[in-house]
Write a structure and sequence with these properties.
Blueprint: H1 7-36, E1 41-58, E2 61-76, H2 88-91, H3 94-123, E3 125-137, H4 142-145, E4 153-157, E5 160-161, H5 167-175, E6 181-187, E7 190-196, E8 201-203, E9 206-208, E10 214-223, H6 227-256, H7 270-305, H8 312-324, H9 332-362
Antiparallel strand pairs: 1-2, 3-4, 3-10, 4-5, 4-6, 6-7, 8-9
Length: about 375
């Protein structure tokens, strides 16, 4: 069992499993779509060349493992040493090229959705219950004097049950300003009755004329999920996370242009992601590992669709330009030059990020924050 292995070895094994899965589903998207559209494929490779060995060959396609374990590729017919520049994919109509190129990132999106749905099926789906969870009790306030504590579940106030609509708390405070009322809370599995007098209190120099002096949030938990509710929740959660990723990219671009502060966190490379895999397993176990895998898969979906040279988005952009030009291709050598320069820039950026990852590793800085 993996739990019996040293933590460093568990991290390596888990990272390789995650990386292999992410690459496999991405390249399968390109491969299966190309075969479906009748585009000739010569090789399906995991890792980047040089080739380690050929696993097998079927229907004219070689299935290979390669020495650089940082990705994978589909080599289309007649391409020589290139992956996209010439050959059967280049000769295909632009719409076929776009379908093949989009299919890879879409498989990463599908994987994230399936993993999130599986987690919801195993853990249950979020639900809002009656009551208010006390997040913070501010000092020298009515709530502090009544001995409310962080983590208390407020279930009743002035004889009125607290439901899912928490606006009632403010209404009760306003109706009973300066008058003692009873509050029923659940704490450590037991119910307690506290007496609190809503009234004037101060925080950071700002005076509040009425209220309790605590911060609260909905009482959120989980309920068992059916396959249908797990799938529907998985869809909504996937696109919610995707929206946050898009917003983060927008903030990053804005910070580079000096329009806003840089978003919290940073960019992690292969070493950083590997370390993050180990950290998330230690913190959240294997369920956390699968959530981490889904998040990385969503990142790959989004990044691969950006028009960055050498990535899928750049090839899609060239296909769209070909459509706009009425089917007139951009000279293959020019397109190949753009992708080659882009690939070299990506490799250079990867080296810089890896150096930063290693420096953080040596300095003992965690990938996921804290420490």
């Amino acid at each position: 069992m993996l739990e019996m292995l040293p933590s460093g070895l568990v991290t390596i094994v888990a990272f390789l499993v995650m990386l292999g899965l992410l690459v496999l589903v991405h390249e399968l998207g390109h491969f299966l779509t190309a075969v479906w559209l009748g585009i000739k494929v010569e090789e399906f490779g995991l890792g980047y060349p040089p080739r380690a060995w050929t696993l097998f060959e079927r229907n004219g396609v070689k299935y290979t493992l390669n020495w650089l374990p940082i990705g994978g590729f589909v080599r289309f017919g007649g391409e020589g040493d290139q992956i996209y520049g010439v050959g059967s994919l280049s000769a295909a109509s632009p719409w076929k090229k776009i379908v093949v190129l989009v299919a890879g990132p879409l498989m990463n999106l599908l994987l994230a959705f399936l993993v999130f749905s599986g987690i919801f099926l195993a853990r249950g789906v979020p639900a809002v219950f009656d009551g208010a969870r006390i997040d913070t009790v501010y000092p020298d306030t009515p709530a502090a004097r009544a001995e409310f504590r962080r983590g208390d579940l407020l279930v009743e106030l002035a004889g009125q049950p607290i439901g899912a609509d928490l606006r009632v708390i403010r209404a009760i405070a306003a109706e009973n300003n300066g008058r003692p009322i009873e509050a029923v809370v659940e704490r450590d599995g037991a119910r307690l009755v506290l007496t609190v007098t809503p009234g004037r209190w101060e925080l950071d120099g700002v005076v509040r004329e009425g209220g309790f002096g605590f911060a609260y949030a909905p009482h959120v938990g989980t309920v068992p999920a059916t396959p249908v509710t797990a799938l529907t929740t998985g869809v909504s959660y996937t696109f919610d996370v995707l929206g946050r990723f898009v917003s983060g990219i927008g903030q990053m671009v804005g910070s580079l242009l000096g329009l806003n502060p840089a978003p919290p966190g940073g960019v992690a490379g292969v070493v950083g992601i590997a370390r993050g895999t180990g950290e998330v397993i230690q913190r959240d176990g294997w369920m956390g590992f699968w959530q981490w895998t889904a998040l990385i898969s969503l990142n790959l979906f989004l990044i691969n669709l950006l028009p960055i040279p050498a990535l899928d988005g750049s090839h899609i952009l060239f296909a769209l330009i070909e459509i706009i030009r009425g089917g007139k291709k951009i000279p293959p050598e020019r397109e190949a030059m753009v992708h080659a320069i882009g690939f070299m820039m990506l490799m250079g950026l990867m080296v810089v990020i890896t150096v930063s990852d290693v420096a953080n590793w040596i300095g003992g800085n965690p990938v996921l924050g804290g420490g």
